[in-house]
Specification:
single chain, mainly alpha, 4 helices
Length: 88
């Protein structure tokens, strides 16, 4: 994966998390939002506190599943060459 593609994908993940964070219902959800992103990037939930929160919070659990799906879709998306003017 090119660095440009990596940055674009990471930017999309961060934008999704930021949107989740802005619509979070309480401070606990805002706290765990960053941990959700890290868990998706690392390939699984890390830590008992986050696992408990996801088990009891439908809002964050939904966001986690959506982010997993987004992450999987980005991995399987066809890779296309960058337009000639976009190459660094």
């Amino acid at each position: 994966m090119t660095s440009l593609a990596f940055r674009a994908r990471e930017g999309l993940r961060e934008s999704y998390l930021r949107a989740h964070l802005e619509s979070a219902r309480d401070d606990r959800c805002r706290h765990y939002s960053g941990l959700i992103g890290a868990s998706v990037r690392r390939g699984g939930v890390r830590g008992r506190a986050l696992a408990r929160h996801l088990a009891g919070c439908a809002f964050c659990s939904h966001a986690y599943r959506e982010l997993l799906g987004l992450n999987a879709a980005m991995r399987t998306a066809p890779r296309t060459a960058a337009p000639a003017g976009a190459r660094g």
